[in-house]
Automatic annotation (TrEMBL):
This is Extracellular solute-binding protein. It comes from the Bacteria. The chain crosses the membrane at residues 7-28. It holds the Pfam family SBP_bac_1. InterPro entries: Bact_solute-bd_prot1, SBP. Keywords: Membrane, Transmembrane, Transmembrane helix.
Length: 987
């Protein structure tokens, strides 16, 4: 019996068991599972804090006590660093890395709720923040305790902004401050208004500190009871008339701080922004100056920026922000304001900054418009502004919970209807779900309360876009409620598809979590001081615009333009921020090393390459082009054969062999892999552990866990479910390859999808839907994974970026594993998958082929790729991850080591689909086979045979066009690229 036959015997057995289980479950039991997901992990802090505050009191008033972690080494797996190695700390410290942990025994005088703070020193490089998990008496007290962040502090490497070749200022390199810091424990989303509280029993308690990411030292843990902030009147009363005399004597003091140059900040990518506006300081009509700060890069909860202010004399001063806030229309944003590291009085917590369409001088005032006064010592004072999204936390929590409930209803309806929509079938839904109307009523009432809360928080004359979205959701729920029997036909409106209610809720949550603000200057002054005007006069504005227009004709840019003789012209298919950093690296490194000038330009559209080549206006090099472009140009004699260079074989060893396959024609390479995608298994470790399910290694393992997942109202995801129409090779080819099949015949003149092995792969690909009921369409796996509806599935780099940068609440609750595969006779598992992304190429008509090859070698080298990955992420944020195709460079990126290990191991079986003339038709026909079998129940063999005829006809037509066939006879052989051919280059 072959491995394919054994696999299908096991499949049939699993199918029988699955059908038996489903047949024994009633709809009542399915309904009883609606809240099961919520019980799989600890409750959130927001869910449990009200209960705790009712049960416990705060700890004893003014209680504070500190404990050195290094003093309790017997219970620790972490290393202890002695005082002399602790970077100036007063005591021995604990070194946390590689998942190690330390345990601390503490005593408190009374049962109650306490705040926790900790001293830490960051050791690791890059953007990875030091993080740990906290257990109290053997348990996580709430979900947020699984991820406690020890925030880093960042500053500019230089006080002056560097200038590029065009005279425009650039963001300087960012460096993390190496210093000891003390921080209270906050939730990872920074959605709670105050530091988190932990419950402790009177007497002895055990705290476990478990390393999660980064590398850092920890000194002492401090416990304290919360300190209530003073009211402004109490704050002001602390300062005598003598203290305030200096402010009176300096009545016209006006101190100006340029916002674009803070002392330090909590994230490297909170950045200055160039604004061409004469009202902004500084201003130059001829060049772009980095003259404002923040905007969209300063909008996430907890992001804090600190400026230093030199005050001539101690006294009471007012503070004015020259700001603009038009990113969130008709909605205010909030900031927590700190002086010298502490919020001075209660009114500086959740301070409201109103929306504005133009620059305004917003003095910090009370609700009546009376300016607040702040006492500042003579000398250096620190002013910090921290993004605060806590006023929206109740609405965010409500929407998150409701999304889970609506998604659960969608799953129940899918199970009831067999996941098939039939507009001609009548349902009596209330017979199966008698509480349906009650559920809808509850959602509508809660959303109306959320609308009222937003109305109170925003307090604007007109409804904000957030409120409009909320009202649209309410209206849609009311419409669906009117005809519950039609719900099975309207799942796309409820919980599935790109226009569903749940997607609208998810988008609204994202918007509510934003608080952008753009600053130009900060003024510290007395009441009598004359502040500069926030806006320019219309005559000055008109004059400046005329000057900008004049200089625009002479100002060079990154747009495509003529280059000087001897300069390599490179078109880059990426956005301007990427190209700016690339050009800076080229100028300071490649050109200085080689003397070769290079001009990079942003390529707005890849089709421009073909048009430019036809008009003999092509560049020398193109970067960031799609993986199929080199082949299409090579077969038309427009791309340069890179294999001709003497050191090509050596350079080719930088990359996965399977990544070259779509870049080859007649065993020659016409491009280099530049970036590389990956498809791996994502899984929610917390949910899988609670369900007691193993992480699948093979596809049979996947089938084995499906019944239990589906019993809990969950499922498994594969990328085929992400597209409603065309199913591309990147999603279908892995099934064919893993079952030992091929897409093309050996001579390349026809398709091979009708072979037994290929049929086995296609059959399994369709059986996943027809027999095993995985979801037909998943509009957004990231959202479904984040909220636990699909706790396991196969996805790629895009999902990885989203989860690492935009799902902080599950940061340490998900992991990666290898792509499931098919066991082979020798015991190995075939996990062959696709994974190409973007490529680099040289044009055949280039007059600088040797220089262009030198540039490509430099650009794709490990050192350059590592440096670029670091610069782009440090400057623009964690979501700007660079998935280089250089294997050595990728292994050194500042990603979690266990994640890189999985990805690199999966890349060992990377096998991209080669290109042949007419391959697009084979890709389309495989997609058509899937649709016909899954949607219409067509016979697989007959459908594949019919599609093979259509595909072969198109392949022969294209082979004739490019000179491989003549009168249906082969006149020139076509060689299908193989991994073995690529591997032989290194021999």
């Amino acid at each position: 019996m072959t491995c394919h036959q054994r696999f299908y015997v096991l499949n049939l057995l699993s199918t029988f068991l699955l059908l038996l289980m489903i047949s024994t479950q009633t709809l009542i039991r399915v309904s009883a599972q609606t809240n099961e997901v919520a019980t799989l992990v600890e409750p959130s802090y927001a869910e449990i804090i009200d209960q705790w505050q009712a049960e416990f009191k705060l700890g004893p008033l003014d209680f504070q006590e500190s404990f050195f972690l290094a003093d309790q080494t017997p219970a620790s797996t972490a290393d202890v660093w002695e005082k002399q190695d602790a970077f100036g700390y007063e005591h021995a410290v604990v070194h946390l890395a590689d998942g190690k942990q330390t345990t601390l025994q503490i005593e408190v005088p009374a049962t109650g709720l306490y705040q926790l703070s900790f001293d830490y020193y960051r050791l690791n490089e890059g953007l990875i923040e030091p993080e740990f998990a906290l257990k109290v008496n053997g348990e996580y007290p709430y979900y947020e305790s699984r991820r406690v962040i020890a925030k880093s502090l960042w500053t500019n490497a230089t006080d002056d902004f560097p200038v590029n070749n065009y005279g425009n200022e650039m963001i300087p390199a960012q460096v993390a401050l190496n210093q000891w810091n003390t921080r209270l424990m906050y939730d990872p989303n920074f959605e709670q208004a105050n530091p988190l509280l932990i419950p402790l029993n009177a007497g002895e308690n055990t705290l476990e500190i478990i390393h999660q990411s980064g590398e850092f030292l920890m000194g002492q843990i401090s416990l304290q009871t919360p300190v209530e902030l003073l009211d402004y009147s109490e704050y002001l009363a602390q300062f005598t008339s003598t203290n305030a005399t200096n402010a009176t004597n300096q009545a016209e003091t006006l101190l100006t701080v340029e916002a674009e140059k803070p002392a330090f900040k909590s994230d490297s990518y909170i950045r200055p922004i160039a604004q061409k506006n004469i009202a902004v300081h500084p201003y130059d009509p001829a060049s772009n100056l980095l003259n404002t700060f923040g905007g969209d890069s300063w909008q996430r909860g907890g992001q804090r920026v600190t400026w230093e202010i030199e005050v001539p004399e101690a006294g009471l001063y007012q503070i004015t922000l020259k700001s603009i806030q038009r990113n969130k229309q008709k909605a205010p944003v909030f900031r927590n304001i700190y002086l010298n590291g502490a919020i001075p009085f209660a009114q500086m917590q959740h301070y409201r900054i109103n929306p504005s369409d133009q620059w305004e001088n917003q003095t910090l005032t009370d609700s009546q418009g009376v300016p607040y006064e702040f006492y500042l010592e003579a000398g250096t004072n620190q002013l910090s502004l921290e993004v605060d999204v806590s006023p929206m936390t109740p609405v965010i929590g409500s929407l998150t919970q409701m999304m889970q409930e609506i998604n659960q209803l969608g799953l129940e309806l899918s199970q009831l209807t067999g996941n098939r929509v039939d507009a001609n079938r009548d349902w009596q839904i209330m017979d199966y779900m008698p509480d349906l109307i009650e559920r809808f009523d509850g959602w509508i009432v809660q959303l109306e309360a959320d609308y009222t809360l937003l109305d109170d928080v925003y307090n604007q004359a007109a409804a904000s876009p957030d409120q409009v979205t909320l009202q649209v959701i309410i209206n849609r729920l009311r419409t669906l409620k009117e005809d519950p029997n039609d719900l099975p036909n309207k799942l796309g409106e409820l919980s599935q598809g790109t226009g569903s209610i749940t997607q609208a809720m998810g988008n609204l949550i994202v918007e509510l979590q934003k608080g952008p603000l753009l600053l130009d200057q900060i003024f510290v002054h007395q009441a009598q001081a004359d502040l500069p005007a926030a806006t320019a006069s219309w005559t000055d504005t008109l004059t400046s615009k005329a000057q900008e227009f004049y200089y625009s004709f002479a100002q060079p840019s990154l747009d495509i333009s003529d280059v000087e003789e001897g300069t390599i012209e490179v078109w880059v298919g990426r956005s301007q921020p990427y190209v700016e950093i690339m050009q800076a690296m080229v100028d300071r490194e490649f050109t200085q090393q080689t003397g070769i000038d290079v001009k990079l330009s942003v390529m707005p559209n890849e089709s421009k390459i073909i048009l430019a080549n036809s008009a003999n206006q092509q560049p020398d090099v193109a970067l960031g082009v799609s993986v199929g472009q080199p082949f299409e140009l090579a077969i038309r004699n427009a791309a340069l054969n890179l294999s001709q260079f003497e050191d090509f074989d050596e350079v080719s060893q930088r990359f996965s062999p399977g990544a070259f396959l779509p870049l080859m024609l007649d065993d020659q390479a016409y491009g280099l892999p530049e970036t590389q995608d990956f498809y791996v298994l994502f899984y929610r470790e917390d949910i899988m552990e609670q369900l007691g399910l193993p992480i699948p290694n093979t596809w049979q393992d996947v089938i084995n866990i499906l019944p239990e997942l589906q019993r809990a109202g969950m499922n498994f995801y594969i990328p085929l479910s992400s597209t409603a129409g065309m199913k591309p090779f990147m999603f279908t080819a892995p099934f064919i390859y893993q079952f030992g099949g091929e897409i093309y015949a050996e001579d390349g003149m026809s398709t091979a999808i009708g072979s037994e092995a290929s049929l086995a792969g296609i059959k399994f690909m369709t059986d996943l839907y027809t027999l095993y009921s995985i979801p037909l369409q998943v509009p957004n796996f990231y959202n479904s994974f984040r909220y636990g509806e699909l706790p396991i599935g196969i996805s790629n780099f895009q999902t990885y970026v989203q989860l690492t940068s935009a799902a902080p609440e599950i940061r340490n609750s998900w992991k990666l594993a290898l792509y499931p595969g098919i066991p082979q006779e020798d015991g190995a598992v075939n996990r062959e998958t696709t994974g190409s992304a973007q490529t680099a190429m040289i044009f055949n008509k280039s007059e600088h082929q040797d220089e262009s090859w030198a540039f490509l070698k430099w650009w794709t080298s490990a050192d350059v790729q590592i440096a670029f990955a670091s610069e782009i992420q440090t400057a623009y944020g964690p979501e700007f991850m660079w998935h280089t195709a250089n294997l050595e460079a990728f292994s050194q990126l500042p990603w979690p080591e266990e994640d890189k290990a999985i990805i690199l191991e999966q890349w060992e079986q990377l096998r991209e689909v080669p290109k042949i003339p007419g391959s697009y038709m084979i890709e389309r026909e495989i997609s058509n086979v899937w649709s016909d079998v899954v949607f219409y129940g067509s016979n697989l063999r007959a459908t594949v045979d019919r599609s093979s005829v259509y595909a072969d006809r198109e392949v022969r037509k294209k082979m004739t066009e490019f000179g491989y066939l003549e009168n249906e006879q082969v006149v020139k052989p076509y060689r299908i690229p193989t991994v073995e051919t690529v591997e032989s280059w290194g021999d």
